[in-house]
Amino acid sequence: MTTDRAATADSARTAFGWGLLCVLSGNMLIDALEVSVAVVALPSIGSDLGLSRTALGWVVSGFALGFGGSLLLAGRVVELLGRRRVYLAALLVFAVASLLGGLATNGPLLIGGRFVKGVCAALTAPTGLAIIGAAYPAGPARDKAVSVYSLFGAGGFSAGLLLSGLLTEVSWRWTFLFPAPVALVLFLFGLRLVPGRTPGERAAAPAGTLRVGVPKRYDLPGAVTSGGALLALAWALTRGPGAGWADPLTVTGLLLAAALGAAFAHIERAAPRPLMRTRLLADRPLVRSAAGAAALNGSYLGFLFVVTLDLQDAGNWPPLRTGAALLPAALPLAVAVATGLSARLVGRYGTARLIATGTWAPPAGYLWYLLAGDHPSYASATLPALLLVGLGFVFQFAALNAQAMSAVPDLDRGAAGGIYQTSVQLAGAVVTALVAALLGAGADDARHSALVLVGVVGAAGAAVALTGLLPRRSRPTAVPEHREG
Q: Which candidate, 85, 73, 72, 91, places its Cα nearest to that of 28?
């Protein structure tokens, strides 16, 4: 009898564990899909809603800006309100935003929905990993859960390209509508499966006490100034190519971004519980990795924006064919993560050498595509460029993540991860928006300028990565004073 009860309990725990992992991984998948699912649909969206190329850039950037701009605050919200409460609420809002985005009749509503979904992803993606750490015991069970969760995240970008192409063949609206029922189903299962507060999680303050000292606890001044700085910068950068960099409103936007950025830095230094631990900015491996990953992601998304328009607008390729054509840049990383190749490479060769080995490939791909001219052949120009970009991701993606955390104390890993992911997402948002603005400015060399920008960003990331090979400066050892007698 006792044995039967123990077997039944073990079976229930196993079923619960797999059910929870399905909910968390399913949500991670739709979060990852959102990064790429809009790319292939852009020409159809622009034609249907009458959006300029600059506005289309915001369709992509809106999600990344919401994601990256709210990551730091999201961690604080989860800490104070609890993982389960925030996770489930974000899933529900994500479903509603997907529905509104798919039914949008104008650009601002569509972009606004994308931004809201980015905020929801900032609340769920890192929280899902934290739930896994709390719900699964250390050892093989947790390692397997993290592996599955990461695989769904890495494979989501590739799946998004194909799914976007497939759904856009019917209507671009389905690319934004399909996550709504998926998120709703995950929410309903999550009500039963997502655990409440665990012993390792701080209790959320009672509802009646949240009003007391809210700015100090949530650091709302820091959130407002950082978010305002990012929005002002993105707006000014997208206005500059069309209106001119000396335009009064463009200059005002840049100055406002600088002022709000300075205010954020001052607030964070003085705050008792800042959103950003500024001392982490002295961690060279973290800063170097964040800058390298930001350049890698930003240049990649900007490049995909140009290639998508080249294939569909200039080449008259259908959406599904376009999505499949872009896979050579994304699929190698998904395979490397799924097979464990990325982790084995890091373990064998180390992070700095691995990053330096792969850092040349994306800029070389961008240059190859640029030199192919205004009407590049897919076989001789586009495909080689995409393969070079994919090769760069295989070598660098896991290595940059590992290098970023290599010298960070355990207590600071969450904050360091927030800085790293914020940099990656915001670079994607800003570079894509600027590329779109250059293409939308109407200049004769607009495409050339956009590709030059992509190449410069990629080359800057390569330069940062190569500094990891430089010998470290050793601090001079103090010589003890000799005293006689």
A: 91
Q: Which residues contact 299 (CB under 8 A, 6 or more apart)?
A: 362, 363, 366, 431, 454, 455, 457, 458, 461
Phi-psi region at 176: left, alpha or beta (left = phi > 0; alpha = psi -120 to 50): alpha
Are 390 and 332 spatial neighbours (Cβ–Cβ below 8 Å)?
yes
Q: Quick check: 124 and 31 in contact, CB under 8 A? A: yes
Q: Are 378 and 325 in contact (CB under 8 A)?
A: yes
- Cα–Cα distances in angstroms (integers) from residue 41 to residues 151, 173, 230, in the given order: 25, 9, 26
Residue 171 in 3-state DSSP?
coil
CB atoms within 10 A of CB 36: 23
Query: Cβ distance 219 to 76 under 8 Å?
Result: yes
103 vs 99: CA distance, rounded Å: 6
In this prediction the pTM is 0.86
Distance, in Å, from the CA atom of 229 to the CA atom of 235, rounded to the nearest integer, reads 10
DSSP secondary structure code for residue 411 in this structure: G
Pairwise CA distance, residues 438 & 451, whole Å: 10
Alpha-carbon distances of 239 from 204, 314, 429, rounded to whole Å: 42, 25, 15
Residue 52 in tokens:
């300029």
Q: What is the DSSP string of 259-295?
A: HHHHHHHHHHHH-SS-SS-GGGGG-HHHHHHHHHHHH
Residue 90 identity: A
> How many CA atoms, within 13 angstroms, populate the side-chain half-sphere of residue 345?
24
Q: CA-CA distance, 338 to 147, in Å (whole number)?
A: 8
Q: Look at the block and give the residue holding tokens 């406002």.
A: 256
Torsion-angle region of residue 219: left (phi > 0), alpha (psi -120 to 50) or beta?
A: left
Q: What does the pLDDT average to over 386-415?
A: 87
**Spatial contact of 102 and 93, defined as CB atoms under 8 Å apart:** no
In whole angstroms, what is the distance from residue 236 CA to residue 238 CA? 5
The answer to whether residues 323 and 164 touch, using CB atoms and an 8 Å cutoff, is yes
| Three-state secondary structure call for residue 205 | coil
Q: pLDDT tens for residues 157-214?
A: 888 888 989 999 999 999 999 999 999 999 999 999 998 765 445 544 433 334 444 4
